[in-house]
Amino acid sequence: MALKKRVPMLEQSPEERIKNFSEVALGYTEELALLEANRCLQCPTHPCISGCPVEINIPAFIKAICEKDYKKGIEILKDTNNLPAICGRVCPQEKQCEAQCVLGKVKGNDSVAIGRLERFLADLDLSLEISKHRSDTENTGKVAVIGAGPAGLTVAADLARMGYEVTIFEAFHRAGGVLIYGIPEFRLPKDIVEKEVNYVISLGVKIEYNQVIGRTIPFRKIRQDFDAVFIGIGAGAPRFMGIPGSNLNNIYSASEFLTRVNLLKANEFPKYDTPVRIANRVVVIGAGNVSMDAARTARRLGAEEVLVIYRRSEAEMPARLEEYHHALQEGIIFHWLTQPVEYIGDINNNVKAMKCIKMKLGVPDESGRRRPIPIDGSEFIVETSLVIEAIGQKANSVLRTGFPGLKLNKWGYIEADPETGATNLEGVFAGGDIVTGAATVIEAMGAGKRAARAIDSYIRSLKRA
Ligand SMILES: Cc1cc2nc3c(=O)[nH]c(=O)nc-3n(C[C@H](O)[C@H](O)[C@H](O)COP(=O)(O)OP(=O)(O)OC[C@H]3O[C@@H](n4cnc5c(N)ncnc54)[C@H](O)[C@@H]3O)c2cc1C
Ligand code: SF4
């Protein structure tokens, strides 16, 4: 009889992992993967597929695992997903495919662990290099992709597989976007990202690093030199609360804090040139994935006490449940319904404390979540010498100055057709966080897939004209 509960994944113990940056979740062995795969009911209506933004044929790859035909399973995965080892680790499956799983709707049963099974196959592929690098060279045309995050990598890989000549221009010296500079090693090892980027390169995609389009190369030149352009530059500019005292020392944005550690290896200072400040008590503001990553990174850097402060309650927390549980296991302390209102500095202008106020929840706001309302007279002081603000990112201002003629909305994001990614400029498409605002890896990849289809139609129409 099939198991009711999902097969647990092996992981490092909390006591061990707070002392290192190695991956926390260790994946399924073949034996565990087979046990889990056999829980799938192979539903003819397969609702799980509708929960996946890139429409992976989930029952088919799970069936292939059950039959131990791993090569077939990998081919099914890679038909629609060029970055499965990444998605198997960081996708919010519990809100997507697994939320639709029929098994999970039966009382007392867990949904099938689709993400873990995806990771099992993808890791097997990376270690054995099973998947073939394919390119049907039937199309001709040159496409420029700006930004090597999940959106850009997906457009590039799909178009290369259709036979287009694709060049990615990336501002940093490494490809992957947030996967490289934002998400920490203990959740997504950088060698996994590198291997999947290499897979994209093996399809024929070229990457030009250290090129900030709109600065080092004018956008006008890119438009002239290519038949079509895809903009996938993400939304990496930090946002701050802007409360009094924000200019004190030792108040980081989560983007800066995480980039210093992930991309610039500040955790290995002085071996690497980038330092990062760490304190005995660190306060992280916000309760999304970025906040969990910052809090858990601070803990690994040696902070004895890490507090997460969030203005709503646990129920409204946007972080993935698994990451929240990992944070709790690692001793992170959560203060719900609390809002910082002022930073307090010492004589050297270093932050030494923050004034906070307690909140209660009112009626739902435009995000659908209950609006937090301050409780008069409930102010209190939290002492800290390092604060990390993780309250969201915004669009980079390079768009306003470096991409003339491109239509942006009032928040500075690109206006693009949600189905095709087409912008107001002919032959220019866009997708990922720079269109939607901060979202997820798989949503950025979904936008990349839709744009690749639209770019293919556009270039074909140019040839017919
Ligand atoms: C810390 C953190 C943790 C997260 N955790 C998760 C998670 O667990 N699960 C999940 O699904 N999502 C997570 N997200 C969100 C997810 O990473 C993003 O939604 C996704 O990366 C967006 O992809 P993108 O391709 O649109 O942009 P990005 O990943 O931001 O990539 C954009 C790329 O464009 C480059 N670029 C920018 N400007 C230029 C320019 N002018 N010229 C050339 N290149 C340029 C950047 O250097 C970058 O490489 C997290 C985000 C953060 C910050
Ligand atoms: S809904 Fe769940 S049980 Fe049904 S096919 Fe999809 S993964 Fe299998």
From TrEMBL:
Segments forming domain Dihydroprymidine dehydrogenase: 17-125
Position of the signal peptide: none
Q: Which residues form the FAD/NAD(P)-binding domain?
A: 142-448
Molecular-function annotations in GO: iron-sulfur cluster binding; oxidoreductase activity
Per its UniProt record, what NCBIfam families does this chain match?
gltA
Can you say what this protein is called? Dihydropyrimidine dehydrogenase
